[in-house]
Sequence to fold (221 residues):
Amino acid sequence: MIVLAQAGRDLRIAFRARGEMVHPVAFFALAVTLFGLGLGSDLQTLGAVAVVVVWVIALLACMLAAESLFRRDFEDGTLEQMLLHGRPIFLAVLGKLAAHWCVSGLPLVLFAPVAGFMLQAPTQALPVLVASLAIGTPTLTAIGAIAAALTVGLGRGGLLLALIALPLYVPVLVFGASASVVAASGLSALPQLLWLLAMLAAALTFVPFAVCFALRLSQEY
Fold:
């Protein structure tokens, strides 16, 4: 119940502030369009790098959205009340992560086939691209939450957040992009997808506790 209540609250707040909700999706769409224009009309070159480009842009969009994960709660005092309540807040953190992914990660997954089509990605790679993003973006959201929790009390800590999160994003990017590349070559991408699932399971298990610790640490200092 705590997870659903927190997720519902955050979703209602997100839909009231639609401008912040649109930023990651707008960045994703704009970056895909610019990459398509910049790479030109060489369809062979464009198709070879399309799935990797989509994954890199999705990663950057998730990182862009991570900074706002706890910002509003920190500014209005809700975060402090949650920490002072005395009860474990990992369930509330799970709810916040679920709501944040629905707002910032799910639209990227839904837009991925359009992005792949715009960049002339191989048709056989599109289902794996969507599947890898559906599994990988929740992990990116969870990793970004740790960095966001550590930097929430530092004002605009976007650069520090990027420095903390990027090294942790690399394994997800490697397996996500390689799954789509392997699928584009006609081979099975199951091993890469299973690795992504394993990372997602580990993130859902450990990240809420890490975020709780990071939030308490950031509030103390």
